[in-house]
Amino acid sequence: FESRNHAVYLIQRMIRRVRGLQRFLRMHDTQRIGGPLADINMDECRFLRFQVVPRVREDKRDFWKASIVLQKIWRAVTHVRWWSRLRTTAVRLQASARVIPAQKCFQVMRRAVV
Length: 114
What we know:
By secondary structure, the protein is mainly α. It has helices spanning 2-30, 54-113.
């Protein structure tokens, strides 16, 4: 009697584990980003006994990697804008510094002619 119950318990445990995994994957597939599993912290796979399914882990890590790529691009864009503004400001300052003595020389020559 006990050996029969023991076999039933093993089978029920395996069925519950499979159904739990299927439920977990359905929850993940319904909304991969910002869904019910959004607060699970995903680090690299450490091959522990109990761990998150690798597909879920890689989906979340790919989302993080994509956001990092976008942040790098945006930071580069803002840096290029800042550098361009700095360069145009420097060119304007140099132009005004060069034009003032030339204008003074021109004004002196113009007054002498007129």
